[in-house]
């Protein structure tokens, strides 16, 4: 029985975070190196790992969270191997080296607890969304894991001469130094996007990347906040 299943066995640990296949995250846990993970994402673990829902660090930011009801995060601590997943979504692992990334809350799976993070307004979109849209910014030295509904594409915006346009429902993350603005295309509203019926895109320019998923999942996207 073991032989046919051997190909699915976990590989030796080589990094703090790494993929096990396309749809699962493996985290090497160590005492003192805690992790924030999406509530309900734990599918298995080895060793001694404890979980704390709605930890104090999350409650402090809860008043600024997109939903106004607190961040859906739990604190994981201990020693062992932790496996996380989100309903079969693809997992993307990023190692931040002193830089930052802006992430849609729906696509945030896990990140090192010592990273700096918080909810911020997406500048340049106020006239399209009342008082603006909000996203989660993470920065510092450490690991971040994102999810994507299907295999994502990472678009390099290059030198900023041309703008990159993205359907908000397909947006996963982007470099926060990029300039963002909204665009409406009424003439193409029946051809572009699958949202409210109005063709609305986010335009990015500057030096940086944009991560786009091949699914226009309109649930819990960048939230409007009045």
Give the topology string: H per helix, E per strand: HEEEEHEEEEEEEEEEEE
Q: Low-confidence parts lasting 5 or more residues at pLDDT below 50?
A: 66-70, 220-226
Please state the overall shape, judged from the principal axes of the Cα atoms.
globular
Report the mean per-residue pLDDT as an integer. 81
What would you call the quaternary organization?
A: single chain
Alpha-beta classification: mainly beta
Query: What's the count of strands?
Result: 16
Radius of gyration (CA) equals 18 Å
Largest sheet: 13 strands, antiparallel
Q: β content, as a range?
A: over 45%
Helix content: under 10%
If helices are DSSP runs of H or I spanning 4 or more residues, what is the number of helices?
2
Report the span from N to C terminus. Answer: 57 Å
3D structure, described in words:
The structure is a single chain. The protein is mainly beta and 226 residues long. The chain is built from two helices and 16 strands. Strands 1, 2, 3, 4, 5, 6, 7, 8, 9, 10, 12, 15 and 16 form a 13-stranded antiparallel sheet that branches. 32% of the residues are buried. This is AIM24 family protein.
Question: How would the blueprint of this fold be written?
Answer:
Layout lengths: L1 H4 L11 E3 L5 E5 L5 E4 L3 E12 L2 H7 L10 E12 L5 E14 L4 E5 L3 E7 L10 E16 L4 E4 L7 E3 L4 E4 L4 E6 L15 E6 L3 E4 L10 E2 L2
Antiparallel strand pairs: 1-2, 2-5, 3-5, 3-7, 4-5, 6-9, 6-12, 7-9, 8-9, 9-16, 10-15, 11-14, 12-15, 13-14
């Amino acid at each position: 029985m073991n032989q046919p299943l051997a190909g699915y066995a976990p590989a030796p640990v080589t990094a703090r975070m790494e993929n096990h296949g396309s749809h699962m995250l493996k985290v090497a846990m160590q005492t003192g190196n805690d992790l924030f993970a999406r509530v309900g994402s734990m599918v298995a673990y080895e060793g001694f790992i404890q979980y704390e829902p709605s930890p104090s660090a999350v409650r402090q930011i809860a008043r600024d969270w997109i939903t106004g009801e607190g961040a859906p995060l739990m604190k994981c601590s201990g020693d062992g191997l932790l496996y996380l997943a989100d309903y079969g979504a693809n997992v993307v692992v990023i190692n931040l080296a002193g830089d930052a990334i802006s992430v849609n809350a729906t696509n945030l799976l896990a990140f090192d607890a010592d990273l700096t993070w918080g909810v911020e307004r997406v500048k340049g979109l106020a006239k399209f969304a009342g008082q603006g849209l909000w996203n989660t910014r993470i920065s510092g030295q450490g690991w971040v894991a994102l999810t994507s509904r299907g295999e994502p594409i990472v678009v390099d915006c290059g030198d900023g001469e041309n703008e990159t346009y993205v359907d908000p429902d397909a947006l996963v993350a982007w470099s926060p130094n990029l300039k963002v603005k909204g665009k409406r295309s009424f003439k193409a509203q029946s051809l572009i996007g699958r949202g409210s019926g109005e063709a609305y895109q986010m335009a990015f320019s500057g030096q940086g990347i944009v991560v786009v998923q091949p699914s226009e999942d309109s649930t819990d996207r960048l939230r409007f906040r009045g």
